[in-house]
Structures are given as C-alpha cells and as structure tokens.
C-alpha cells in the first residue's frame, strides 16, 4: 500500500520523536565520506546532535555545515539533507541540553570541552517505504514542507 504525503509526514514525525539514533553522513573538503550513528533529539524544527569537535564528523560539520541524515531502515526510511551549526555548551538554548540528555541517556556536557552540540536544520526531507513510494517521496524542499 502506498501512503499519502500526509501519512508519510506523520510517520516521519514519529521517527523524529521516537528514534534514538540517526545515521550521520558528512564529507571532508576532499570528498572523503564519513558515516556514523549518533544520538539525537528533535525539537520540532532542528535535530540536535553531539559529538567531539575533533573527530571527522565534528570537523566536517564545522567546515562545511552540510549533512545527510538517515532514520529507519531501507523499507521505512526518512532521509534528511540539512545545514548544521555548532553550538557551544554555554550558548545552548534553554532546555536543549537537558532534553537531549534525557532522550539519549547521556549528557555530553559532562564529557569535557572537546564535545559540542550541532543543530541541524532540515532543508530537504524524503520518506518512503517500498518501490511504490519512490514517486512523490519529497516531504520538504528548500526548508519548506510541501503540504
């Protein structure tokens, strides 16, 4: 059965709310890819990630601000292209650190200054299950929901 755009959006919102981890794909300036799973928290507008600023993912996020995220599995997928910005612990909006820690069952603020938060603003979102949902899989383009 092919889901409607609204059904796919609802499913994507459930994944953003309930999934604990997201696949995070970045690349360095030479195009060398990096793919890692990270915990995340969705505030309704941005996905919040945390990692060391010195590892490849942190360096790539800070250098380019470009990221691709993947939630779910291949037959129930939410794919997100977004722009990321680093947010120092001292500059976190009220409640973000605590909400992230509650969902991730880990608080990066206690792991030292090499860690930072990254706020990812979705620019393009797709959701699909099987081949029948390949058509009309875009939920968001250029940061705007399509319904």
Structure description:
There is one protein chain. The chain has 147 residues and is α+β, with helices and mostly antiparallel strands. It has one domain (5-145): Pnp Oxidase, Chain A (Roll). Helices cover 22% and strands 43% of the residues. The protein contains 3 helices and 8 strands; from the N terminus they run αβββαββαβββ. The protein has helices at residues 5-18, 56-64, 96-104, and strands at residues 21-27, 33-42, 47-52, 66-73, 76-87, 115-128, 138-141, 144-145. Strands 1-2-3-6-5-4 form a 6-stranded antiparallel β-barrel. The chain is globular and about 50 Å long. The two termini are 21 Å apart. The model has no long low-confidence stretch (mean pLDDT 95).
Please state the CA-atom Rg, rounded to the nearest Å.
15 Å
Helical region count?
3
Under CATH at level 1, the class stands as Mainly Beta
Mean of the pLDDT scores? 95
List the strand order in the largest sheet. Answer: 1-2-3-6-5-4
List the uncertain runs. none
CATH topology: Pnp Oxidase, Chain A
Give the amount of beta strand, in percent.
35-45%
Distance between the termini: 21 Å
Please outline the major beta sheet: 6 strands, antiparallel, barrel
Order of helices and strands: HEEEHEEHEEE
């Amino acid at each position: 059965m092919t889901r409607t755009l609204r059904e796919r959006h609802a499913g994507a919102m459930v994944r953003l709310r309930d999934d604990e981890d997201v696949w995070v794909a970045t690349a360095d300036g030479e195009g060398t890819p990096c793919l890692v799973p990270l915990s995340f928290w969705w505030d309704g507008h941005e996905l919040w990630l945390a990692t060391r600023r010195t590892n490849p993912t942190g360096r790539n996020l800070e250098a380019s601000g470009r990221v691709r995220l993947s939630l779910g599995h291949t037959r129930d997928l939410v794919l997100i292209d977004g722009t990321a910005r680093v947010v120092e612990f001292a500059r976190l909006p009220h409640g973000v650190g605590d909400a992230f820690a509650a969902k991730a069952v880990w608080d990066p603020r206690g792991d030292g200054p090499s860690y930072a938060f990254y706020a990812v603003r979705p620019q393009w979102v797709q959701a699909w299950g099987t081949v029948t949902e390949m058509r009309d899989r875009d939920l968001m383009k250029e940061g705007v929901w399509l319904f």
